[in-house]
Amino acid sequence: MLNILEYKIYSFIFVLNMLKSSPITDNFLTEERLLKWGLVLAIAFLLLINFSRILYPYDTGIYEGCIWAPANVISQGTNVYTMSFTTNPPYVMSPYGVFYYALIGMGLKLFGFQFWVGRLLSLLCAILSTLCICKLTLHFTRDKALTRLSALLFLAQIPLQLWIGVQRPDLIALTLSLAGITISLTAHLQAGKNKKILLTALSALLLTLAILTRQTVILPVLVVSWWYFRNHAYRSLFLFLCLTAIFLFPIMAWLNYTSDGGYLMQQFLIQTGGEKNIHLTFTLLQVFIQSTSLFIFLLWVIAIGSKENTNSVSPKSAFENNSALYRTTLLLYGIFSFMLALVSSIHPGASINYYLEVTVVLSLIVPLYWSRVQKTLRLTKYYRLCLAVIILSLSFWGIRICKGEYDRWKALPYYNEIISVIKQKTPVNQPVYSEYPELAVLAGRPCYFNDFCQYNGRAPVQHQIVENNLHTGVFSAIIISDSNVMNGYYRFPISEPIPYKFYVVYLYLKK
Q1: What does each C-alpha distance from 212 to 185, 243, 451, 459 come to in angstroms?
Q2: Cβ atoms of 299 and 150 closer than 8 Å
Q3: Please, what's the b/e burial string for 14-41 (b: 16 or more CB within 10 A of its CB; e: otherwise)?
C-alpha cells in the first residue's frame, strides 16, 4: 500500500507543478528553501538511523559480526590470511583488507567485543565523504547552492542510507579514495613544485589505504591517473603510480608470503567463486533505480537536454579548473563504476553497498551539468519539481528505514533470550555455530566459521568443512535461519515473539 500511495503522491506533485506558476510555488517553494529542507530532512533521518544502530548491541542483519574474528587475530599481531585458519578451528576467513581489520582490532582491544566503534567510524566517514563531495563541487562550479545540492543528492540516496552506521569497510574505503581524488583534482595542479610532490604522495597513500581496506577500490586510482595524464602532468603521474606501487605492493607481497598464498586467495580468488546469481544483480539494480536515485538521474537528464548558458561560466571556474575535463572524468567514472557494480553484484553476498561509487558520481555530475544551463522560467519549474520529488522520496525511504530500526529494537528481547539460553544450556568450552557470530561470542562461547557468506557461498572447499561439522555433533548449539530441525539437535522454544520484518534465526541445542 505504501508503494502505491507514494507513486500517487509523486503523480500529484508532477501534475501540480506542471500547472501555471502561483504565488505559493514562486515565493514559498523556492530553490533555496527546498535545498535547506532537503538537507535538514536527510541529516535528521541519517542521525536517527545512526543513533539507533550505534546503541544496538547486535548485528543489523548484514553480517557485521564476521569482522570480529579476523580483527581479533590481527590485533594479536598474526597474519589472518593464512589459509590454515580457514580449514582449522575456529575456522576464520578474511575477505576484507588488513587496514580495516587493524582499525576494528584496535577497537576490540580497547573496548572488548562491541559494534559501536566500527559504526562510529562509518558515521565519521559519511561526514568526510560529504565534505569531499562539497569540496569538488564548489571547486568546479563556484556555486554554493549547487554545492548544497551535491550534499543533498549524496545524503538522499539509498546506498548511503542503508549502509551508514554499520560495521563494514565500504564507507571507510570510499572516504579514503574520495579524499585522494579530491586532493588530486582540486589542489594539485595549482600547487608549487614541492607541494605537488607532497600532495601526490598523500593522494597515493590515501588510495593505498583504501585498497588495503576494500580490495575492489581500483577505479579511483585510474581516475587520478587519467586526470594527471590529461593535464599533461606526466611527472606527477609517474610519481603517483610509483608511490602507489611502493606503498601497496610490498605490503601485499609480505602478507601473501607470510600466509603461504592465503592473502591473494582470500582477497581476490575466492571472492570470484561460488554460484553466480543473476537474479540478485537485477534485484539490487531494481532497488537502486526505484529509490531517490531515479529522480536524481531524471534531474541530470533535464540538465543534459537544456540549453547551455555560455555567459554563466566565468573563465576562473571553467577554464582554469578544467571543468570540461572534469565532466568527462565523471562520465567515465560513472560508466565504469556502474558496470563494476553490475558485474560484481552477481556474486553471493552482494548488497546495495556495491552502488556507493555510483551514488558519489551522481552527486557530483548533476550539479556540474546544472552549472552550465540557462535557467528559464520553465526550466526552473522542472528543477524545483525534481527537488520536491527527491525530498519526498528520501522522506519515504527515511521513514521506512526508521520503521526498520523500530522493528529491530522490538526484536532485541528475542536475541537476548537466545544468548541467555546458550549461557545456561551449553558447556563453556564447547563451540557454537551461528550465522551471526555475536550471538555466540557475547554468550562467552567459542564461535566456529566466522563469515557466513564466505563459508556458505563463495568458498566451496570451506563450505564442505562446514557441512561436515554440522553433521558430526561438534557444536553444543546451532543458530541458523533454517527452520528445519537438524539431526542430533532439537529446536529450543524461545518464549519471546519471533522478530517481525527483521532477520530470524532459530536456536538448536544438542540432544
Answers
A1: 22, 15, 19, 21
A2: no
A3: eeebeeeeeeebeeebeeeebbebbbeb
Residue 100: closest CA among 82, 86, 116, 121: 121
d(CA 224, CA 178): 10
Closest listed residue to residue 172, CA positions, set 112, 204, 124:
124
Q: What angle do CA 206, 95, 455 make, to 5 degrees?
A: 170
User: What's phi and psi for 258, nearest 5 deg?
Assistant: -80, -5
Query: What pLDDT score was predicted for residue 456?
Result: 81
Mean pLDDT computed over 368-394:
84
Q: How far apart (Å, rounded) are the C-alpha atoms in residues 117 and 64?
A: 12
Is the model more confident about 473 or about 3?
473
Cell 563531495 locates to 133
Within 10 angstroms of residue 205's Cβ, the number of other Cβ atoms is 17
239: how many CB neighbours lie within 10 A of its CB? 18
Three-class SS of 214-236:
CCCCCHHHHHHHHHHHHCCCHHH
User: Beta 477-480 vs 432-434: how paired, if at all?
Assistant: parallel
105-119, 168-182, 281-295: the lowest-pLDDT one:
281-295
For residue 371, give Cα distances in angstroms to 144, 212, 368, 510.
11, 36, 5, 66
What average pLDDT does the chain have? Answer: 88
Of the candidates 145, 28, 10, 63, the residue with the CA atom closest to the CA atom of residue 451 = 63
Count H helices, E strands: the chain? 24, 5
Distance CA 172, CA 123 (A): 9
CA nearest 132: which of 164, 175, 163? 175
